[in-house]
Amino acid sequence: MIAAGPSALPFDTVSALDPASQSQASKAQIEKLSGMLQQHFAGADSLMERRSAFEELMASTPGPSRVQIRHVDAGGVDAELIWPARLHHPIGRRAILYVHGGGFYGGSLQTHRAFAAALAKASSSDVLLINYRLAPDYPFPAPIDDTLTAYQWLLESGYDNDNVVIAGDAAGGNLAIEATLRQMQLKGPLPAAVIAVSPITDLAGTGNSFAANIKSDPLLNATQMEAARKAYLGSRAPTDPRASPLYADMTGFPPILMQVGSSEALLDDTLRLADKARKAGVDVTAEVWPGMIHQWQLFPFWIDDARRSNQNMAEYAIQHFADKPKE
C-alpha cells in the first residue's frame, strides 16, 4: 500500500490516505501544536540550543505508564529495555530496536521514552531504545555503528532476527535504514522489517518539499538541515549512499513501512526512497498523513492522528514478527 500526497511521485498503487481528507479537528490540533513548537523553539538557533529546547519540551510532556524499564549496556551502547507491565513473557521473544530522531545531534532516552513505551504496549513486544552517540562530537559513522551494535546485541541476547524490527524517526529513520544496509553488506541476519518515520533519506536536501513545505513545518527547514548535515558529515559528500539511503542500492532490503506528513519538509525524502525501493523489489508500505508536520507521532496525547499512526506502526511490527503475540 502506498498513500501519496500532492507532490508524490507516480506510484502504481492507489492512494489509501487522501491528503484532502484531514478533519477540521485534526487541522485545529496541528495548528495548536505548530504554534506551540514555533514559540518553544524561537531563539534556539544553534544546534546545541535546539538540542536543549527539544529536551525541555519533551520533559514537559506526559511520561510512560504501565511498562517496565531496565537500563542496559547493549554492547557498549547506552540503552533502555522497555516492555509492557501486563505481560509476563520471558524477555527475548520479540523486540523493536528503536532509534530516536533529533537531526543526528539531539534526542535522547528522555525525549523518546514515552513514545517507545507506548510502542511496546501496542505491539506486545520489548523495545530497546538506544542512546547512540551524537554529532558533532561523534559524527558519521558513529551513530550507525551504535545502531548496528545494538541490533547485534539483541541477537546475541537471544532474540531471533525474524522477531526483531528496527524502527526510527527522522535521523533515527535514516540510521535504521543505514544500519540495515550495513548488515546486508556484512551478509548478516536481517531484521524482520524496518519502520522509518519521516526519515532523512537525502542529506543533500534535493527534495522539492524542502521549499514547498517550509512554511508549514515548524521543526525543520533547509537551513537547519544544512547545519545538521555539516555537524554529522563534515566534508563527506551528502550523496554518499552510506549516509543517505536515497543513493543506496535497496535490492534485498527487508519489508519497510514509511510514514510521513503531507506538510513536512521531508515529504519527498520518504516518497522518493519508497519509489526507489519498490522498483528494487522491496515490499514497501508508505503512508502520507494529511496535514501532519515533522515528528507529529511524538505527541499522541495531543494529536489524534499520532495515536492512529503509532498504532499502524505497532500493527506493522506484529504483522512481521515470526512469533506473533497471542491474543
How would you describe the overall organization of this protein?
The protein is α/β, with parallel strands linked by helices and 327 residues long. Helix content is 37%, strand content 15%. It contains nine helices and eight strands. It has helices spanning 24-41, 47-59, 109-123, 142-156, 171-185, 209-212, 222-233, 267-279, 304-320; strands spanning 67-74, 77-84, 95-99, 126-130, 164-169, 193-197, 256-261, 284-289. An eight-stranded mixed beta sheet has the order 1-2-4-3-5-6-7-8, sandwiched between helices. Helix 3 (109-123) crosses helix 9 and helix 4 (142-156) packs across helix 5 (171-185). The longest helix is centred in the N-terminal third of the chain and has 18 residues, at 24-41. Residues 1-17 have low confidence and may be disordered.
Strand content: 5-15%
Major beta-sheet overview: 8 strands, mixed
**Portion of residues within helices:** 25-40%
How large is the radius of gyration? 18 Å
Layout of secondary structure:
Blueprint: H1 24-41, H2 47-59, E1 67-74, E2 77-84, E3 95-99, H3 109-123, E4 126-130, H4 142-156, E5 164-169, H5 171-185, E6 193-197, H6 209-212, H7 222-233, E7 256-261, H8 267-279, E8 284-289, H9 304-320
Helix pairs in contact: 3-9, 4-5
Summary?
Helices cover 37% and strands 15% of the residues. It is an alpha/beta fold and 327 residues long.
Salient structural properties:
327 residues, alpha/beta, 9 helices, 37% helix, globular
